[in-house]
Write a structure and sequence with these properties.
- It is built from 15 helices and 48 strands.
- It is α+β, with helices and mostly antiparallel strands.
- The strands form twelve sheets. It has a seven-stranded mixed β-sheet with strand order 30-32-31-34-39-36-37, with no helix packed on it. Strands 43-48-44-45-46-47 form a six-stranded antiparallel β-sheet, with helices on both faces. Strands 17, 18, 19, 20 and 21 form a five-stranded antiparallel β-sheet that branches.
- Helix 7 runs antiparallel to helix 8.
- The longest helix has 14 residues.
- The chain starts with 11 loop residues before the first helix and ends with a strand.
């Protein structure tokens, strides 16, 4: 027979003052919680004193019961206009979140039994609720009731059910979890009988836990401290993937750390001294309810962490800026340092004092150093120079600390190459320079210097630094005079092989002047005197690591000529030589320039140039040997027809002759008919003449497609262009061309003797066989009986028009 026991704690009016607190539940540790049915506010009630403390709100009226999901989360039903909804509230923070709509109204009862969440509607329907989505379904209807169901009951459990998504622990670099703690040894802080003690999770009775006596604190912590520590443990026990802190291994107690009085509690695996974490709160904050700021959880730290170097923590973990290396993580700021945790390292790394100041100066985790990968440790350079040294390693480099000079940062490239900034630092240490002198030196490590140069016989070179964050230096890098480093002489402009240029300069991982210039991120503007003739072709051969540009300036009129695309770095000369073919518009002396930049790693530059023999004529007189008329003429086609549409085949025949590809011993007319045969490979009406195949169809028209086929079958490759630059470049590279256009009276009148121009015409082909030294085009029009002529760009434009095309004949 049950013997019920009742005790009046307080009049109901006291508990419902200023609200209808009709929903009540007990937490697993025996505390009483309530909800206001009208407002949805949540409260904690002290049964002994009947004091009521608000801890949060649902944001709308509460519809039914409250149940605990685990130790620190309340599940509740909130009223909605169309559907009630399932809510969850973290009692440590008071934060509420909506899980989802139930799909039912007037859900007044809620229970959690054996991990199954159920509820009852006022009409007697029993619902089963999905804790992930809040969606409810009818399991059964309760029979035999005459009124309404106003509530349900459950047995509070610490285990609860999983609602929502938990943070994922990264797989790489994961720390092993501690061995499982036996149930009888798992401890949870509780507040009992005016003392702060530990009680087993399963509430087993006894005088000891695993042989450890009950803890009793003589300097009892204030209630706010207890609440703050409980909040910190709940909020930070597994925050964003941070490893668990384990179970408490001692009570909350006062301790002096870093010269300050603080409340401290240690956490360990099974109560051993192998501590997994701490919660710390300054005694001065004992009355504060701002738990997020005052109760600070430290992961993986023993009680004796480096308080002498770092001071006390200033906040809980803060998301850190992603590093340039792509790493994400958190950090805890301390009074004189910081602690860092990353998914990649999965462990705490700390820096302090001088390290912290240098790290902040460079932008913290978002700067080029990235996250720390090791705590500072002893370092032994080859010569200590009478100092004690330490080094802290980071993703992007190191911070080195000397007892007399403090902390300085270096990239891994500086350190591993043992050159540049790293060498400057140790040279300064060896000279006994002060901290400020070294800082000035490293911020401006290279003093300007100038060597004697003679650009008539050698290479005069100005060297500049550039910002590594730019990827490449700007094309006009020399305009920034603040980046000027030195003027140096790179030696003779005649190579050891007798060619004009510069012998291979291979600086490996250094620079042209060793310690006097940086080993990386420098750019050079170099020039020497060179004589070039208009109408001739030249070839430059260059090898460069990393980038280069080639151009020249005429000395008497300062006119620039670009041999590589203007204001564009070229990076195609790494390893093997790159050929750059060029010419100049005027004969004379030039300042031949190369620009070169180095980004990182090895660096070298190698260059020579030479004149190329030209296959194309450079005057109308030279072109006489290649000229062909499309109809009968005593000099230019003695056996030709009196009339023809042979402009296309005649122009192609002139290109073939100019390039030395014409079969020997054939007449002009046979060469034209042979060109037509090449243009029409599918025509079966060909014949043999003078030892070659010909197609004698003087009245047939030809087009660009036929011209392409003819060039290909003659042993070349057709390239189509439309701009004047392309035309000039093609001729400079030894590629003659055919141009299409229209015959007009203005076109005829430009010839030296217009009466010698043939009759008829409209659409027409001509050949352009070369250029003269003064820049005129050598035009071979198969309609003009006077032979090849020299024309300016404006004259040739009369024929080509605005949208005309031309086809080059190249054998390369």
């Amino acid at each position: 027979m049950l013997r019920p026991f009742f005790q009046i704690l307080a009049p109901l009016a006291t508990l419902t003052e200023n609200g209808a607190r009709s929903q009540l539940t007990f937490s697993p540790d025996g505390k009483l919680y309530a909800a206001d049915g009208d407002t949805g506010n949540l409260f904690w009630i002290d049964p002994r004193s009947t004091q009521v403390f608000q801890i949060g709100s649902l944001g709308t009226g509460s519809s039914g019961d409250l149940v605990f999901n685990g130790e620190y989360e309340i599940l509740a039903i909130a009223r909605g206009e169309i559907s009630d909804r399932l809510m969850a509230v973290d009692i440590s923070t008071g934060k509420a979140r909506t899980i989802g709509d139930l799909g039912f109204q007037d859900v007044l009862g809620l229970a959690l039994t054996n991990g199954v969440l159920s509820a009852y509607t006022s009409s007697g329907q029993k619902l089963v609720i999905d804790p992930q989505t809040g969606i409810a379904s009818v399991q059964e209807t309760v029979a035999g009731i005459t009124g309404q169901i106003w509530g349900a009951a459950d047995n509070p459990s610490r285990s609860g059910i999983v609602v929502g998504e938990l943070p994922q622990i990264p797989q790489t670099g994961e720390l092993p979890d501690p061995e499982p703690i036996p149930q009888e040894r798992q401890t949870t802080p509780v507040y009992l009988d005016q003392t702060y003690r530990f009680q087993t999770a399963d509430r087993a009775s006894g005088d000891a836990i695993g042989g450890v006596p009950w803890w009793q604190v003589s300097d009892r912590p204030p209630q706010n401290v207890v609440n703050a520590f409980r909040w910190a443990y709940s909020e930070r026990h597994s925050d964003n993937g941070v490893p668990r802190m384990g179970a408490p291994s001692g009570p909350i107690r006062l301790q002096t750390l870093a010269g300050q009085r603080v409340w401290v509690q240690e956490f360990a695996t099974g109560g051993s001294f192998n501590s997994r974490g701490l919660i710390v709160m300054r005694e001065s904050d004992s009355n504060s309810t701002d738990y997020n700021r005052t109760a600070i959880a430290l992961f993986g730290e023993p009680l004796g962490w480096r308080v002498d170097l770092m001071g006390l923590p200033r906040s809980n973990p803060i998301p850190a800026t992603r590093s340039p290396q792509g790493t994400d993580g958190w950090y805890i700021p301390f009074e004189y340092g910081s602690q860092h945790w990353t998914r990649q390292n999965f462990a705490n790394k700390s820096i302090w004092r001088d390290y912290q100041a240098e790290y902040e100066r460079l932008g913290g985790s978002g700067g080029w150093l990235g996250f720390p990968t090791y705590d500072p440790e002893a370092y032994s350079p080859p010569n200590t120079y009478g100092q004690r040294w330490e080094i802290a390693r980071f993703e992007g480099g190191v911070i080195i600390w000397g007892s007399a000079v403090g902390a300085f940062s270096f990239s891994w490239q500086d350190v591993n190459s043992n050159s540049g900034k790293w060498r400057q630092f140790w040279n300064a240490i060896a000279q006994g320079r002060s901290r400020d002198e070294i800082r000035t030196l490293l911020d401006n490590p290279y003093s300007v210097f100038r060597e004697n140069t003679n650009s008539n016989t050698g290479w005069a070179t100005n060297v500049y630094r550039w910002d590594r964050n730019q990827g490449q230096p700007p094309a006009n890098f020399w305009d920034n005079t603040a980046n000027f480093l030195a003027t140096i002489n790179l030696g003779s402009n005649v190579r050891s092989d007798g060619k004009k240029g510069i012998n291979l300069q291979d600086w490996r991982d250094g620079s042209p002047r060793g310690d006097r210039l940086p080993s990386d991120f420098f750019a050079m503007r170099s020039y020497t005197s060179a004589y070039f003739e208009a109408g001739k072709r030249y070839r430059a051969m260059v090898r460069a690591d990393d980038g280069y540009q080639l151009f020249a300036k005429k000395q008497d009129n300062q006119r620039w000529v670009h041999f590589t695309p203007e204001n564009q770095w070229q990076t195609d000369a790494y390893g093997a030589y790159k050929e750059v073919v060029f010419d100049v518009p005027e004969t004379g002396w030039y300042d031949f320039h190369f620009h070169h930049y180095e980004g990182g790693g090895n660096a070298y530059f190698d260059l020579y140039w030479e004149e190329l023999p030209s296959l194309l004529p450079t005057s109308a007189k030279q072109a006489e040997a290649f000229f062909k008329l499309q109809f009968k003429h005593s000099k230019y086609n003695p056996t030709g027809p009196s009339y023809s549409n042979n402009c296309g085949p005649a122009s192609l025949a002139m290109l073939i002759k100019t390039l030395g590809l014409e079969p020997p011993g054939i007449s002009i007319e046979t060469s034209i008919d042979h060109a037509r045969y090449l243009m029409f490979p599918d025509d079966p009406n060909f014949s043999e003449k003078e030892g070659v195949r010909v197609l004698n169809r003087d009245s047939a028209y030809t087009g660009d497609g036929n011209m392409r086929v003819g060039i290909q079958r003659a042993g070349g490759r057709a390239e189509e262009y439309s701009t004047w630059n392309d035309l000039d470049h093609s001729l400079m590279e030894g590629k003659p061309l055919v141009a299409n256009g229209r015959i007009s009276s203005k076109w005829r009148d430009q010839f030296p003797e217009p009466t010698l121009y043939g009759s008829g015409g409209d659409f027409h082909y001509i050949a352009v066989l070369g250029k003269t030294p003064n820049g005129k085009y050598i035009v071979a029009d198969p309609m003009y009986k006077g032979g090849p002529v020299e024309m300016t760009k404006n004259q040739l434009a009369v024929f080509r028009g605005e949208n005309a095309r031309f086809l080059t004949f190249t054998t390369s």
